[in-house]
């Protein structure tokens, strides 16, 4: 038993850790691959829905990745996209039902966007590009990594939108009343979707300024 | 290479497993989901009578405490069932399907509607549930009338899927507060039922005397606004026989 373990790759080998780290920075699904933008704009007006969305995507992506990875040798190539969709759709409906049962308010705020996780390009992309050709454990890490990469951007955007747009963090007022007395106003524009796009743009700008390798040659 | 037979078998088994998983989950989670929906409905009923900010954990208790009577009336305004004690969330009034009853009304069949009474410092507030159609799907809500069964105390609206920023604005306080910021009445001076109109272009278009029977519609949400207008008219009209009897 112990001998067998030695031959195996350690669970968190550098190669496996890279699966988690890369999507957080140089291969971020939102800022570098520009996938999953639509939901990023929709659910980032407040921090709480952004975090619930992140967790939901993480569950769906990690579990679907593992399931597809386990099935990968038996899936007939001709219907592989359909099989992937069935797995994703099943997971999304499960997540939706669980949210409705236990965090009803948040599920109302997320409304259609939980259902739309099915169409989140990140998920299909990872299943097709990674899970179809890798073992379950790396596939699991890849799912967690990409969901974290997606989530971290959502949370950064939601932080600025909620802070500047509503003056709150997690619905708790953080801007002192004194500021309002002096004429400070919450910026209502931050609540609207266009400002989410601009915030994502600023994040992309900062990231490329700090990491010149990401800038495309033209 | 996979044979066609293998592909069909594979697809069939996969789908059966997925279906079994989903139906099991749906069945197991249903009681929790229904409880959440009931709590939301109670919150909306109480909020229309300005009983707001109740913690969800104690909603069912508070609802039973605040609602002094849950009634079911028929098309002639006759009280069929009245519940003053016990678990009103299991009573007939709370579980009436408004959609079905209004469909019966539209087809000239006998129907039943719920009413809730709340005690506000010795005065009774009457709450009438509403149900209608918006642009994309159903809209619903509650309207609370004061003891004179004429003056609006408060309203709440909700919707299934109206457009955010346009039709969905009916569920915001900006729209709902119009019903209470100035006095609104559902009967005119001659005791004729007039409902409350949702007026495109704003109540200022109405003659002075009519303004207590109208609120501003939502710009860009005309069809939803008309839906609210029709809902108020259609549903309140069904309660008029009951209201007449109380006077």
Description:
The complex is a heterodimer of chains A (218) and B (247). Chain A is 65% helix and 2% strand. Chain A has a two-stranded antiparallel ribbon. Chain A is globular and about 65 Å long. The longest helix of chain A is centred in the C-terminal third of the chain and has 31 residues. Chain A is built from 11 helices and 2 strands. The N and C termini of chain A lie far apart (55 Å). The model of chain B has no long low-confidence stretch (mean pLDDT 91). Chain B has one domain. Helix content of chain B is 38%, strand content 22%. With 247 residues, chain B is an alpha+beta fold. Chain B has 6 helices and 8 strands. In chain B, helix 1 packs across helix 2. In chain B, the strands form 2 sheets. In chain B, strands 2-1-3-4-5-6 form a 6-stranded antiparallel beta sheet, with helices on both faces. Chain B has a two-stranded parallel ribbon with strand order 7-8. Chains A and B meet through helix 5 of A and helix 1 of B.
SSE string of chain B: HHEEHEEEEHHEEH
Indicate how many domains the architecture of chain B comprises: 1
Strand order of the largest sheet of chain B: 2-1-3-4-5-6
**Share of β-strand residues of chain B:** 15-25%
Tell me about the largest β-sheet of chain B.
6 strands, antiparallel
Residue share in helix of chain A:
55-70%
The averaged pLDDT of chain B comes out at: 91
Q: Using DSSP, what is the number of strands of chain A?
A: 2
Helix run count of chain B: 6
Ranges of chain A where pLDDT stays below 50 over 5 or more residues in a row are 1-5
Query: Largest interface, counted with CB-CB under 8 A?
Result: A-B, 22 and 20 residues
Helix-strand makeup class of chain A:
mainly alpha
Strand-helix topology:
The complex is a heterodimer of chains A (218) and B (247).
Chain A: H1 2-7, H2 14-21, H3 37-42, H4 47-71, H5 80-102, H6 104-110, H7 112-115, H8 121-129, H9 136-166, E1 168-169, E2 172-173, H10 177-181, H11 193-210
Helix pairs in contact in A: 2-9, 4-5, 4-6, 4-9, 5-6, 5-8, 9-11
Chain B: H1 4-48, H2 59-66, E1 67-74, E2 79-83, H3 98-106, E3 112-120, E4 123-133, E5 138-145, E6 152-159, H4 173-176, H5 178-181, E7 197-199, E8 214-216, H6 222-246
Helix pairs in contact in B: 1-2
């Amino acid at each position: 038993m112990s001998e067998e373990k030695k031959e195996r790759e350690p669970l968190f080998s550098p190669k496996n850790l890279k699966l988690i780290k890369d999507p957080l920075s140089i291969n971020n699904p939102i800022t570098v691959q520009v996938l999953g933008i639509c939901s990023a704009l929709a659910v980032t007006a407040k921090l709480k829905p952004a975090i619930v969305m992140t967790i939901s995507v993480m569950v769906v992506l990690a579990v679907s990745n593992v399931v597809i990875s386990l099935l990968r040798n038996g899936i007939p190539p001709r219907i592989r996209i359909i099989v992937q969709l069935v797995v994703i759709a099943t997971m999304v409906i499960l997540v939706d039902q669980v949210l409705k049962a236990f965090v009803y308010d948040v599920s109302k705020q997320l409304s259609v966007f939980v259902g739309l996780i099915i169409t989140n390009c990140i998920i299909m992309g990872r299943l097709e590009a990674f899970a179809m050709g890798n073992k379950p454990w790396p596939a699991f890490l890849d799912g967690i990594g990409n969901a974290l990469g997606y989530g971290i951007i959502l949370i950064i955007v939601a932080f600025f939108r909620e802070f500047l747009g509503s003056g709150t963090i997690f619905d708790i007022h953080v801007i002192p009343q004194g500021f309002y007395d002096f004429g400070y106003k919450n910026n209502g524009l931050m609540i609207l979707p266009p400002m989410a796009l601009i915030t994502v743009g600023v994040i992309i700008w900062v990231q490329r300024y700090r990491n010149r390798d990401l800038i495309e040659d033209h | 290479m996979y044979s066609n037979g293998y592909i069909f078998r594979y697809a069939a088994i996969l789908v059966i497993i997925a279906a079994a998983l989903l139906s099991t989950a749906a069945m197991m989670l249903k009681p929790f989901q229904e409880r959440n929906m009931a709590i939301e409905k109670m919150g909306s009923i109480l909020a229309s009578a300005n009983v707001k900010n109740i913690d969800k954990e104690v909603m069912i208790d508070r609802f039973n405490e605040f609602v002094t009577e849950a009634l079911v009336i028929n098309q002639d305004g006759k009280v069929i069932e009245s519940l003053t004690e016990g678990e009103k969330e299991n009573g007939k009034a709370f579980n009436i399907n408004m959609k079905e009853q209004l469909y019966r009304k539209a087809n000239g069949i006998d129907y039943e509607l719920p009413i809730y009474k709340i005690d506000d410092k010795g005065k009774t507030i009457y709450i009438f549930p509403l149900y209608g159609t918006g642009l994309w799907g159903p809209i619903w809500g509650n309207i609370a009338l004061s003891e004179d069964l004429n003056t609006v105390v408060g309203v709440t609206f909700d919707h299934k899927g109206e457009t955010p920023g346009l039709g969905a604005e009916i569920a915001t306080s900006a729209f709902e507060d119009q019903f209470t910021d100035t006095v609104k009445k559902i009967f005119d001076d001659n005791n004729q039922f007039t409902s409350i109109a949702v007026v495109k272009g704003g109540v200022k278009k109405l003659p002075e005397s009519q303004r207590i029977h109208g609120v501003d519609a939502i710009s860009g949400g005309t069809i939803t606004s008309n839906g609210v207008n029709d809902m108020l008219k259609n549903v309140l009209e069904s309660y008029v026989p009951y209201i007449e009897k109380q006077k």
